[in-house]
Amino acid sequence: MRRSAGLLLHRRGPGGERQVLLGHMGGPYYARRDAGAWTVPKGEYEPSEPAWRAARREFEEELGLPPPGGEAVPLGEVRQAGGKVVTVWALEGDLDPATVVPGTFRMEWPPRSGRTEEFPELDRVAWFPPDRAREVIVKAQAAFLDRLAEHSH
User: Residues near 134 by Cβ (< 8 Å), separated by ≥ 6?
Assistant: First the structure.
């Protein structure tokens, strides 16, 4: 079973409303998609690595920035449509999306062309209010937004 771990960064916006940081998945399959193409910054890890350590490592690999300090709130796990189990922690913090330097991955593109191209893991990141985040996030990950809201009240 494939496992991923990540950090859901959240902050209070200028009007006091809660916002969450999501990344738009890079690569050609998501280039023209919005709904279901945004994700918590996360990545896969081996069973021998603690999920919390993987979440922090993947945050830095995907965004090119160290995760903020502070108290992490466990939001549990969800199983995505493809079967991957994702474990996430919420962390309060702020960052400027313009400072993100995304990690990259390589894949054959176009398919069966024999050519390999490099793509950003996340081609952009942005802050969203929870209702808008719910419209664009990978469907199974919406549960993390609900759990964050429950914890914040």
Answer: 142, 145
